[in-house]
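call fold target=Lipoprotein
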Amino acid sequence: MKKRQIAFAGASVAMVLMTAACGASEKQSTGSANVQPIGGTQTVGVGATSGASGYGSSAGTGNEAGGDSGDATSGKDALTGPAKQLSVRDVPKLGSIVTDSKGWTLYRFDEDTSGASPKSNCNDACATKWPPVPASDATVSTGIAEKELGSVTRADGTKQLTLGGWPVYRFAGDTKAGDTKGHGVGGTWNALAPDGKPAGKKAAQDDSLQLSVTSNAKLGKIVVDGQGMTVYRFDKDSAWPMKTGCLNACLETWKPVKPVDTSKVAGVDPKKLTTFTRPDGSKQLAFDCWLLYTFTGDTKPGDTNGQGKQGLWFAVTDKAKKAGVAASE
């Protein structure tokens, strides 16, 4: 009797762990699937988190791609003062990164927006861990184009420095000039390259991203594929157990998204990307266990013609939720 109880308890624990890994927070239907993690790796700082808050850990330990060289200035002023003259520093594995006049690494956040209307989405507790760099008293040195400098007005009314259109931050987990412990935290924070792009391998591949997040005026942040086409999820699919409800004629209109290299994604948590084996043996990408599709009715990047189709198809948010739908639905 005791052995049977132990076996049952072990099976229950295994099921709980598997359910937690595959979006069990939403109402699911039953089904089955062959699910595998996506290939590729994502470097995340030790102690970093990649949950809904998106801003990671404030711990002083983490991924340190660079060395310890630079000015040892520390304290509040080092994290909150103006950047003054920006400089370019070469770091092993990351290549060229931007530092302030004291040698402290500067960062960018994938969940911000850039371009003609940049916006910082790091406020309150996030801004304590990632202090925004003031826009005042900033100049450039060799390797950085002056035209890349700009500013954005934050939610509290202060002006924050931008580089290449991206709001600029420091990381409270860096304990001295030269540290790069913020790079890779949460899968959304990266050291800045001189053009405002993420430093390192991701910077070199920025133009060939296979999955990323864009801002839509009506739907907010939504996921797009490598061609910029909107990605959708289907209410008749099941996330746990994973099962597809789009078969036969459905596939003429809704095309399964192919698996991606997780080193070529931005704005989504790569650990939540998995590969699903469809009934015909082909592979399909899943985000937080929801299968992803594109819509043949979308003819150009930015189209969202599939949104709300039949009351079953929805664009996917950066958290794998249904875009344009209240959280409780």
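return ok
The chain has a mean pLDDT of 80. The longest helix spans residues 2-21.
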